[in-house]
Predict the structure.
Amino acid sequence: MRSPPEFREAILRRTACCAAFLTLAIYTSGCTIISKQYGAPLDTSKIQPGDGPMDYRDALRALGPPARITALPGGFGFLYESLYIKERQIGLRGNGDVLRFFKLAFGDADLERRTIQLVFDESGMLRAHASDVDLDPIGKGVGMQIFYQVQPVVDTRDLELTYVDPLLWGLSQLQPLPETLNVGQSLDSGAAGFEMRGTPVAAGQRTLEMRQLGRKK
């Protein structure tokens, strides 16, 4: 005689609950916080309206070298960007002779992004500026680690990419055809605007390059 579907579902739910409690009983847990900083912290108060005329030399003295520079109609622009990544992990460690040397880490990460944009005219005088602070979730991750080792489990490689070295601009002519044809409008050229770290390659200007999502930039 077969059991009703509701009875079988109740048994499966109870079995799953027992397995979860058994796992928690076998493993001990611990919490870890990993933080990473990319770019110097920015003080937006150093760029305030009403402080008198400011040129690009004043900006460099106040904020240091920018993360990005681009040509603009009638002038040029600086982009300053500071990223602070905070990852929280919960680790589960076994009590057996072998498992006690390993832990299963679950993590989620948030990103605090601070940006300052400065627009100068052809003579180098500041004409416009804007600053912003954003806090966004990055994602989640899971990984097996040695118990005494702490490593990030959330993939943040798209935010850790270094900016384009001007000495490597010539390599743009050796890229696949769609990217080579887009050199004139490429955001890597310093002549077509800014792009913040972590911008998807399938959004905005990058769509003209027809890049594959699985390829690295």
